[in-house]
Recover the amino acids of this structure.
């Protein structure tokens, strides 16, 4: 993984020094809140419902054990003993005091982490496939590209005060695990007919008020053209994007209103000017970055311990069958640690759990951890012979829930329990759904099913691309939940369809239960997933389960 | 026709702690909604909001929030303000915990 050089360290120390001084000037009354707000946002500091919130970037979701230990330290020393992993591979602290934030940032700086550009109208934390460097289906590790983009976009003078935020994701997998088509811009690493590696550029995706699926802007870019092409694209949008209406300011609206062809022509025109300014220094930097991401020294060892534990322990077997993914190296596995214990807050880990994860990664996982946009933690490189020990250590830390990809592996934004923008709560809805299906003991029978919950139209909980999406709204002063069906976050990305009238807070969990039980009746067999059944049958039969009274009245 | 004025309180977040605070009759800030000044006159409410907003070294984002008269003082009328005066529902953190602590200290 990437290690900061002297330049990076000096840059970050200087930036933290500046922010410390800005905080001091705000407290002394030399900066007004209007002056201070854009400065604190640019350093990841929000003011939420009950307190400040510090959002720390976890670039492309990659962490070392030492970094995870520092995240635990922040939770314990300056917060209430826990942190919240988000859908953008960040971690949020919900209770810091303004006066402590400069110390928190300094502590992060010690391990090469920061909160720069995790808010504000800038290029945000670059996300990537959480299985990067480990997945069996990927062309190459996408993280060097993500790191190159992170370095290029950090403090980029042209892109510090844009019309709106800009989110970039990178992936090289056969499967899309990074929701590329829901990003302002996405880089998909591809291979052309001649066997050369290059980049497909997808633009104009996004969820929120006007959800849109990204479109292909460029089918194949040679390696050396990537940064100038992205710079040209962001530059065109930054110039022609709307600044009169914040809801129409994202690039998805610009592409939609301008038309893809014309937008592409404008990018090409800008590119003619921008390309010559790139001397090739970015490619030298890229070569240097690539060296940081050399794969760990995988060992060749027998897997007897794994096989015997798998045969002997049904709980271990269930966890293995549910939480593991095929690794590219023989004898290895990718472990997804569920941060979705039934009844707990999706994505919340205590300081003790973070330390346990760091220790497990140190002992058994080549010192690497990942955070997924699905709000789970990944141990990307675990030798199978170590899996029984890893499972035992996870049990100790209460992190052994076997529910990855199942109905209780729910994405949920913080909602109105924390967020100042929220219109309704999401966390308790997620907790109750997970608890209910655990009681029913049905989730392994139900199989792959993604529920995603957002507490407002901004869709941080990705509800539009959930197989079942739940959107919490304020309807005449009461929480109300709308259900969408058939959303998909993969290459076949699709925006879910609204099922009908919303449900009150105390009706939403029973509604989801009716819907899922309805699916069990409707499916052709256990191999047909919820999404497949929905695609085969359409909305109507599911609606009949969601709104039985309406059906009865109509009959 | 303009909508009829409904009673309000002035609320904000504290500059240092970031927690929820309410403006009182004597120009100070309280962490207890019941102790907030209850504003029933629109013109007076606007003047008080200006006065509250001037305390820039103490507060951030002062605004008028709907309230109703309760037994012990102002009460929230919307669930957002109810959450603000209570704390999150997934953990016993925020105001609900602090109030208990204060009660404990008083007892």
């Amino acid at each position: 993984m990437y290690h900061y050089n002297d330049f990076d360290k000096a840059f970050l120390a200087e930036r933290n020094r500046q922010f410390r001084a800005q905080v001091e000037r705000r407290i002394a009354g030399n900066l007004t809140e209007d002056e201070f707000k854009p400065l604190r946002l640019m350093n990841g500091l929000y003011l939420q419902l009950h307190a400040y919130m510090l959002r720390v970037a976890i670039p492309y979701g990659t962490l070392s054990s030492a970094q995870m230990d520092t995240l635990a330290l922040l939770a314990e020393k300056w917060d209430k003993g826990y942190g919240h992993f988000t859908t953008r591979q960040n971690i949020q602290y919900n209770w810091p005091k303004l006066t402590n934030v400069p110390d928190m940032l300094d502590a992060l700086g010690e391990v090469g982490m920061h909160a720069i550009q995790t808010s504000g109208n800038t290029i945000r934390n670059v996300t990537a496939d959480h299985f990067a460097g480990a997945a069996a289906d990927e062309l190459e590790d996408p993280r060097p590209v993500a790191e190159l983009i992170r370095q290029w976009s950090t403090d980029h003078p042209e892109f510090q005060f844009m019309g709106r935020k800009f989110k970039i994701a990178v992936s090289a997998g056969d499967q899309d695990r990074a929701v590329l088509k829901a990003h302002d811009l996405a880089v998909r690493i591809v291979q052309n007919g001649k066997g050369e590696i290059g980049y497909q550029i997808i633009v104009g995706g996004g969820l929120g008020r006007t959800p849109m699926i990204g479109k292909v802007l460029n089918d194949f870019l040679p390696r050396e053209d990537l940064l100038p092409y992205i710079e040209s694209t962001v530059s065109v949008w930054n110039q022609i994007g709307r600044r009169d209406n914040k809801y129409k300011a994202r690039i998805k609206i610009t592409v939609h209103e301008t038309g893809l062809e014309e937008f592409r022509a404008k990018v090409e025109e800008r590119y003619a000017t921008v390309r010559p300014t790139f001397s090739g220094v970015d490619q030298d930097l890229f070569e240097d970055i690539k060296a940081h991401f050399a794969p760990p020294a995988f060992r060749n060892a027998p897997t007897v311990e794994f096989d015997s534990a798998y045969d002997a322990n049904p709980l271990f077997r269930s966890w293995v069958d549910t939480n593991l993914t095929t690794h590219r190296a023989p004898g290895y596995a990718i472990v997804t640690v569920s941060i979705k214990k039934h009844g707990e807050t999706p994505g919340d880990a205590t300081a003790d759990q973070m330390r346990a994860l760091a220790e497990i990664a140190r002992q058994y996982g080549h010192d690497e951890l990942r955070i997924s946009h699905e709000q789970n933690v990944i141990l990307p490189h675990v030798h199978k012979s170590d899996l029984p020990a890893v499972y035992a250590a996870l049990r100790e830390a209460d992190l052994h829930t076997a529910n990855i990809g199942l109905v209780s592996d729910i994405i949920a934004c913080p909602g109105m329990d924390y967020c100042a923008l929220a219109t309704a709560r999401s966390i308790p809805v997620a907790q109750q759904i997970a608890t209910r299906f655990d009681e029913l003991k049905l989730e392994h029978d139900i199989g792959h099913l993604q529920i995603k919950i957002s507490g407002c139209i901004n869709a941080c909980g990705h509800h539009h691309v959930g197989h079942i999406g739940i959107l919490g709204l304020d309807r005449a002063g009461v929480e109300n939940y709308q259900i969408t069906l058939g959303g998909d976050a993969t290459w076949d990305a699709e925006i879910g369809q609204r099922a009908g009238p919303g449900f009150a807070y105390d009706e939403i969990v029973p509604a989801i239960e009716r819907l899922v039980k309805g699916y069990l009746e409707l499916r052709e067999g256990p191999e047909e997933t919820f999404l497949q059944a929905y695609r085969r049958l359409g909305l109507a039969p599911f609606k009949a389960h969601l709104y039985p009274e309406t059906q009865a009245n109509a009959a | 026709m303009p909508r009829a004025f409904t009673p309000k309180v002035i609320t904000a977040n504290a500059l240092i702690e970031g927690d929820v605070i309410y403006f009182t009759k004597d120009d100070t800030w309280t962490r207890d909604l019941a102790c907030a000044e209850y504003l029933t006159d629109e013109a007076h409410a606007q003047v008080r909001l200006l006065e509250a907003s001037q305390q820039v070294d103490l507060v951030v984002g002062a605004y008028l929030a709907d309230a109703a008269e309760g037994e012990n003082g102002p009460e929230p009328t919307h669930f957002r303000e109810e959450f603000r005066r209570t704390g999150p529902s997934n953990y016993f953190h925020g105001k609900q915990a602090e109030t208990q602590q204060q009660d404990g200290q008083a007892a």
The first helix of chain B runs from residue 42 to 53.
